[in-house]
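We emphasize that the prediction below concerns an isolated chain of 256 residues; any contacts that depend on oligomerization or on bound cofactors are therefore not represented. The input was used exactly as deposited, without trimming of termini.
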Amino acid sequence: MLDRGTPFATLPLEIEGRLRHIGDFYLDAQFNKTEERPPIVKIKDQIYYRFMDFLYLPQPPESLSTEQIIEICDLRMEYMDHLVVAAHNEHIVAEAVRCAQAGNDRLVPPIKALDFGCGSGLSSTLLQKYWPGLSLIGVDISEKAVARSREQHLDARLIKPDQRLPFDDATFDLIFAIFVMHFNVGIGALAELRRVLQPGGSFVFNVYQRDIDEVQAQLQDAGFNSSNIEEISGVSKTHRMVRCSVSVPGERLLQM
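Result of the prediction step, given as a token string:
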């Protein structure tokens, strides 16, 4: 977890000199993967946090506003080939599917699944690759992301922050959130995910650079009642896969 108490470094002048100031963020559009960049740096006498290697944020990801998150989503669409590491995304999706299948071995197709924060559609495409039995719908708060997903003939829908999801109660057997929960998804949004998830279903997501106890507390406040946390092979130990569930009526609740 990166916070304001973590020591910062001075960004090398050759990198700072080429940064592009876009909205609240800075972008190193040279995208040189061989250069080392500290996780927290000072740019023009202000502290910034590295994100997706080439973006610098004025707050840690979990402290960004909804408007800033949308701005990041839009930047990711514009610089997709540089900011998104396809192999890393595929590894995380494969682990998410493995985690979901371990907790839902009785599900049979068609399995109704929601890709919460579907972005460009990459996560939806990979989820269907690793679990062909999924009947998948994606949602995102970025218009550009939803448009990109639809260009790939995916079922993607634009949602408004802090508003009711456009689905009936207990619609989905599974909910995935791939590279979403490093942002601070509010209690209201989590409660909506709880509402549209079938009793006995699972919400599966990866999370990193966040206090896992804080995430668990939010899940519990939103109505999820049990969780399983796993380390992910091949990545930092701070990067976890989480599967939380909603109890079947009459089932004894498990403490988180």
